[in-house]
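Bench log, entry 3. Co-assembly request; chain sequences pasted below exactly as received.
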Amino acid sequence: MLNSAPAATAPVLDVRNLALRFKDTPANIVDGISFSVREGETLCIVGESGCGKSVTALALMGLLPRSVARVTSGTAMFGGSDLLTLPQRAMADIRGNTISMIFQEPMTSLNPSYRIGEQIGEVVLRHKRVTRAQARQRALEMLDRVRIPAAASRLDDYPHELSGGMRQRVMIAMALANDPALLIADEPTTALDVTIQAQIVDLIEELQKETGTALIMITHDLGVVAEIADRVSVMYAGHIVEEGPVEAIFDDPQHPYTIGLMSSVPSIGPRSGRLATIGGLVPTIDRMPSGCRFSPRCPFVQADCLKAHAPLSTFGPEHRAACYFAPLETVFAEAAS
Amino acid sequence: MSLRTPETIIETQAVTKRFSGSRGLFRPATFVSAVNAVSLKIRRGETFSIVGESGCGKSTLARLLVRLLHPSEGAVLYQGTDISSLSETDMRRLRKDLQFVFQDPFSSLNPRMTVGALIEEPMKVHTSLSRPERRQNVAELLRKVGLRPAFSNRYPHEFSGGQRQRIGIARALASGPKVIVGDEPVSALDVSVQAQVINLLEDLKAEFDLTLVLIAHDLAVIRHMSDRIAVMYLGEVVELAPNEALYNEPLHPYTQALMQAIPIASPHGRSMDAALTGDVPSPLAPPAGCRFHPRCPHASSLCSTEKPELTETGTDRMIACHHWEKFAGNAQTHLREPPRSANAEKRFTLFRERCQQQEPTTADNP
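Structure output for the full assembly:
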């Protein structure tokens, strides 16, 4: 949130029309999505399991093996080059350097047999011309910056000696060690307890303010979204169904899926009857509905929805939703009463 | 819930469960008290929730309640009978009444059994129903949990997480239980599916006149479902209160911190607050005195030496803290969820009405 009027700055990452398909499947798992993120800005990609949010992140990082999935269309412009077509070697120079990633499970993403100081130092040694001693010094600085108490004495710890929250701090230290222009965080707090989650979210926000890095946060937790996002993209079954500034998404949700998702979250206020639910299930890749992919579960579905999926139309500054019938009350108000 | 004096269905009396930790050749065995002298009473017909962070002993306590684990000390009473000292044969008879729903719907169903066989099994063990009667019950139960009776010939792997959780619930209902203990029954599910299962549990509870014990870490889910709530920290209950009271006015500093850390799904809400620093200490070496004192913002020297007992505060609440009266009002206002905008409210209502018009929520095709 460094720049409150960021329209002028060019995006750090600009993804256009990205489509991905798993091997031997009949439909795209990610089907033509576009989003961008600017310096100092936080974009949250929200969706349930299987909507394609994590695959998107892996594709951007060049971590999707070609034997498993391939990019069927699209570009992802970052610093003048297209991440989707860069050769492996060039990608390896970017990963951990100008783009880094934090994963959900901090235990499995740290190497259990190396001390954490070495693991953070390794990232620096790989990308910067520094000595081992300087790398170690940088690791120490980073541990300090992620507020690990008595950082110097922790440098030589192994990951198993740390708690879940501490490990996630180490992951963040490692991700930020080379001052990346873009940080992708995939459900970084999902495995953590609430009190620890609050600490980590605070930390990510603070560090982002300090460094001005662009942040893409992938999450399913609308509470975390409300806390940290500048802009939000809501994904359902490989499509972005709605996108916009965080206030617009929460105060003026347009797509039936966004509305259904928000109303299925139990409130922490006084109980207000049964939860609204979205009937049915997320479609599997071999049975993707034609037209709008949400149509089989949508309580507002009409014949048009089955023909072709609606393009994103504009509802406010940077606020777009892919539904033919939004705003819903203008079309369905009478039927409801 | 009712005006009659609440009847206790399960009671724990200073129940303790110790697990032995690492034992080396030259090292004495160490013990973790996962649950430490917990006494509480669960009332017939209520939804009683146990909340706490990982490692606080909530799942261990849940297993003690239905004797999936034996207590190391203390007793667990079911309708006045001490189940911790029953023989296996006698216990088997009681298992009919006490059923368990597990967190992970992927590992708690035998992959080699069909859904029908899974749900039928408890009836074979606990009832004298004939085969056709059992089959009919299976179909009925599948319908009750929102699945098609035709699914009984399929195998668990053919179903999604939410559907498997429904199968787990049908299986738990099969013996006609009085109490169902759910260990994080919805936490592995996506939000939209989670809401379906929450509604299902509430409907079934009313229909079958169940007592529900829920273990959860999601404070919003607990808020939505519970009548009374016990908050656990490092193996001990630190606060026990009715739902409204706990959320409106949490008294224990730990409960207050938990409430402050809940992310609120509104960009106009108060920001998530990391009220606590540091991590939960290792249960291998729990702090002396009050186990929460190293992280407590209000701790005094008394707290580090003397352990506060869980005591009645009047008004149906219990708390284990030396100083709660001094800062009882601290966290009152933290949990007001800001009102929704008119547009959002309008569409939420529309969505809800529209869903109700159509059909009751069923989980369709696998």
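Residues 361-366 of chain B have pLDDT under 50 and may be disordered. Chain B touches chain A through 72 residues (CB under 8 Å).
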